Amino acid sequence: MSDWTRADVCASAIADAFKDDGEIFASPMGLLPMLGVRLAKLTSNPDLVISDGESLFLAGVPPLFAKGDVVEGWIPFRKVFDVVAYGKRHVMMGATQVDRHGNQNISAIGDFAQPTRQLLGSRGAPGNTVNNRTSYWVPKHSPRVFVEQVDVVSGVGPRRAKAAGPAAARFNDIHRIVSNLAVLDVGGPDDTVRLVSVHPGVTVDDVVAQTGFTLDAPADVPTTREPTTEELVLIREMLDPKGLRFKEVPQEEAAK
Amino acid sequence: MTRKPRDKRMSIDEVIGSLESGMTIGIGGWGPRRKPMALVRALYRSDLTDLTIVSWGGADVGLLARAGKIRRLVYAFVSLDSIPLEPNFQRARQSKAIPEIVELDEGMFQTGLRAAAQRLPFLPMRAGLGSDVLVNNPWIRTVTSPYTTDGAVEELVAVPALELDAALVHLNRADEHGNASYLGPDPYFDDLFAMAAEKTYLSVEQVVDTAGLTVDSPVQRLLVSRMLVDGVVETPNGAHFTTCTPDYERDERFQKAYAAAAGGSDEDWQAFHDRFLAGDEASYQEAVRAFHEEADR
């Protein structure tokens, strides 16, 4: 089965971000992260604890947005905050902006006092990034998202965490940034964003051109792995038969 | 003669009448979920001004911002969920219509309410460190741990107490004394809002007798005790258009109409205001019924 799409590649790359997490609460924000986490639970990491995105821990792995699965626990918002502080959690958030040092912005674009575009607000990003493992999902990799410096620091990257002192740095763990073009992390020099792999059909130059800061790209950048046959069956037949994933990563971006 | 605790039932107007301009008011629920919207609509219509609003925000913040009621807003996000960005809130922020903005991390917000509930000036927390929450709120201080952790001395955020003059919350059921239960999946933080507040006004779908509160639901659902409550208002469909599970879910169709008007021209908003918000709660509910009848035809 080689007729995978770019969305499938993204789903398996997101799943890989959660494969070594062990028995922790996986909190995906957004559609592809939800798909990737459920894929990880069905393949590489069955110990993951997942929720319905509201207040229930799900024992099974239902299709996206399906209800009525077996419940294994209760996780209202107040207990989410407890788990954030406890640390057994990996959240994958969205990001309107990510900068060279892995800081993230979901608060506002422009001057904070009078933004040109007000976004959600910082939500849980400041707390997440100094308490538990945090990754980001960027469905449209572009220089508008990957900027030299974010307008507002919601999620804290490793350099700023270190500058803020040991209480901030102790549990800061920016794990992966998965986009529609590539997988990145913050392992570059001086805690900068580094290219980990490019998705099949994407070149390093493509990613560099779509990134608004100088991207650390090692001499040999591997290609993101292709989804396995098992994963493709799970995605298509079970988790997302309606193809909701193509709303975030359109099918036109299928591998060449 | 048997003596019972006080009957705290009151009207929406009596709740608004007990509030004053300049007060700090906490609004319970979460985003577009179980918001005390009947009370918020009454605030929107009232003469009150210069309010400090403390809310994990949804359309409550949007409406009050649109009416120019907010002098200072304390929030971590404002969202309608299925419509991620709240148009009235965006409009207010982008035109600098809210003079003072306090954006916190959403966990800090809980910690601030906890500090107030425990009558402490602050509680320590990691959230906020390294982020622009501390840059944009330079009045929020840090505190140095008196203990050494792994050879390091940690400097933590001293999250200031979010003390409220009044809290407005909406639950599913209450008795006339203010004992109240939530029947949905999440209590949110309504008990914490009540404990952080000088006065708490509780609206509910239905007032029942005390025995009725536990007749068909477990005692753990009794979130709020009467000792936290100053007023009880029965407002059926009073969380509309936010969720009040299991009594009703979010009215997505109406929310769309709200967001379209809020994000549209001044005339669009005026028309929405005239149709739904100009009258009292009963006329609002009647207008919503008519709206759905029209849409169903």
UniProtKB/TrEMBL annotation, chain A:
Keywords recorded for this protein, A-Z: Transferase
Gene3D superfamilies, per the entry: Glutaconate Coenzyme A-transferase (3.40.1080.10)
Presence of the UniProt keyword Magnesium in the record: no
InterPro entries xrefs: CoA_trans_fam_I, NagB/RpiA_transferase-like
GO molecular function terms attached to this record: CoA-transferase activity
UniProt similarity note: Belongs to the 3-oxoacid CoA-transferase subunit B family.
Protein name, as recorded: CoA-transferase
Native source organism of the sequence: Nocardioides antri
